[in-house]
Amino acid sequence: MTDTPIRTMGGFADARDHRHEALTSRTYGRALLAEARADPRIVCLGADLSQPTETFLFRDELPDRFFMMGIQEANMVGAAAGMARCGDVAFAHSFCVFITRRVYDQVAMQVAYPRLPVKLAGFIPGLTTPLGVSHQATDDIALMRALPHMTVIEPSGPEQVAAVVRAAVDHPGPVYLRMQVASARPDETTPLKPFEIGRGQVLREGEDVALLACGMMVEAALSAADRLADRGLSVTVANMASLKPYDTDLAVSLARRHRIVVTAENHSVIGGLGSMTAEALMLAGAAPRFGMVGVQDVFAEGATTDYLAEHYGLTPHHIVQKVLSLHAL
């Protein structure tokens, strides 16, 4: 089951037109396809998940550069590494947990160690799946940021997808993209967000509290900021989409200008955004009241995303309560 393939009149148009199309796309599949139309080095590898990874668009439009490897992520990563050694920019796709934890040694030795231009695109991060522990990637940021040479990126939502795909294509080394599955009709009214590897982005300025968030928790942080404003607290919200390299300068600057700093992530509080922020602040000697919102040191369960977010503390309400508990100290 596929969508209608994207076609261009007269075959391939000017590469500059496709690069512009890529940057205005709000879904991963369309952004990657547009980049590939402009850059013949890009190849696409799949592990029998063309629909949820949105790569059916690439398959239908550029079949000679699409490789369905079947349910064998380890071999897919090895093949992607071999293609990269031959001059390709290889995008390999699966669910987050399968393309990190399941094939960690292959990623380490065949991609990260030789610093190859392999882009690992993982989908359904954290608790955004009802399929239970086997499919829930709550440790993938920790795993991937531990690898030398690996860049780790998680866009805030559809409004930032195009920019992170462009950054991954342009980056000369390996990249892990932590992607959400797009809704059928992404919101076209939200302004597109830029992205630069190694840089965070302040979305809202305040004076009392700094909320540092990534992925789906950016929206939750913005909602929490509104609720905290009703309680008289002025809140800064920063989108920390570049998880490695991390924008330490921004994190430390915010910590020195705010009494309270709270991180929010759809990931374990061990080894992810909270941990890297705590490390940065401690090493810089910055000492705000600090808290982390995320999955505690537990395995989750199979249920709807809304239920899991509520049960494991990933909602605007939980961010508000964490801030208020620190404010009361």
Helix and strand layout, with pairings?
Layout: H1 15-24, H2 28-38, E1 42-46, H3 56-61, E2 66-68, H4 73-85, E3 89-95, H5 96-99, H6 104-112, E4 118-123, H7 140-145, E5 151-153, H8 158-170, E6 175-179, E7 201-204, E8 209-213, H9 217-229, E9 235-239, E10 242-244, H10 248-257, E11 260-268, H11 273-284, E12 289-295, H12 305-311, H13 316-327
Parallel strand pairs: 1-2, 1-3, 3-4, 4-6, 5-6, 8-9, 8-11, 11-12
Antiparallel strand pairs: 5-10, 7-9
Label the overall shape: globular
The CATH topology of the largest domain is given as: Rossmann fold
> What can be said about the biggest beta sheet?
7 strands, mixed
Please indicate the percent range of residues in DSSP E strands (runs of 2 or more). Answer: 15-25%
> DSSP helix count?
13
Report the end-to-end length measured between terminal Cα atoms. 55 Å
Share of helical residues: 25-40%
CATH homologous superfamily label of the largest domain = Thiamin diphosphate (ThDP)-binding fold, Pyr/PP domains
Detail the poorly predicted runs: 1-13
Number of strands: 12
CA radius of gyration: 20 Å
Report strand order across the widest sheet.
Answer: 2-1-3-4-6-5-10
Structural class: alpha/beta
CATH architecture verdict of the largest domain:
3-Layer(aba) Sandwich
CATH C-level name of the largest domain: Alpha Beta
Order of helices and strands: HHEHEHEHHEHEHEEEHEEHEHEHH
Query: pLDDT average, as an integer?
Result: 93
Provide the domain count. 2
